[in-house]
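Marked as duplicate of an earlier ticket. Keeping the data here for the record.
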Amino acid sequence: MSSPGAPPATPDDRAPWPGPFVRYDLVKEFVVALAVIAGLTVVLTILFSSPDDTPTTIQSWSQADPGDFLTTAVTELNGTSEIATYGPPYNNTSGSAQKIGPIPLQEAAGVKVPINTAQSYVIEPLKEIPADPQLKTALAAYEAAPPKLQEAWTTAYEEAVADVKVVGGEPVLPPGDYGPVAPMMASLLGLAQSGGLDGALVAGNHHFYETNYTKPLLFLSAGGYFEERAEGQHLLGTQWGMMNETGSYPGQVWLWLYTFWYQVEPFKESPNADALIFVLMGILSLAFICIPFIPGLRTLPRHLGVHRLIWRDHYRDVES
């Protein structure tokens, strides 16, 4: 018998279990569950197949919409594309970096993936085409011309390319002074439609195993074809694109907390949205980590009593 004021006795954990025992074949349950899941996987795969579409490549883009490809390519040559004016980490365009307060994050990181769009997307790939005297002459003439003349040629081509027609695989434009830009663009279109430009943009990384697709992806993103296809599949950022896979199938729902902020003000229209949401997510993540140390918040589950609903049978037996 315990003395008055002593704490109540607790059961000895080393004592034999006084309750009932039930025979349970763990291996059998595992095998049955594995067979059921495997069967469902096979049946559902046959019924619904894969929601993934064929990938968009520069080859498929140039074949499906050569006009859009040429429009994008000449802006890369002219240095007026979105990529050419993006700023760090691709180039040193001033005033394009996102900021947190007075700190320009992109400029602080510097140019880590240098891309000269004229060289990377037009001139260097064209130099890889063998045995084409006309193209070689055009490239030499373009590179030898002063910048103002280069700009005049590319601007004239850019203004006329909206009316381009492809006849027998060759782009035909209204009469104009395009200089060597016209044969250069024609050769680039042929290279792209053959699939050679996809390989050239990746092979330029000079690694044995090429897994860096930055250049071709940036080139694709500059055109309208890629964006139109993404919009049709509800994959744009304004369509909660990170939340879907192709065909509007449920996607990466664990990313909702991050993509949510892009849909609301002030982030929705802010030019610094990426930087602001980066900071906000850092604060929210830190707050989540610190929950066990925040008075009031850490004891909230105990006060809400949800656990008592889940374990209601246990508490009913204990409290009876």
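See parent ticket for discussion. The first strand starts at residue 99 and ends at 100.
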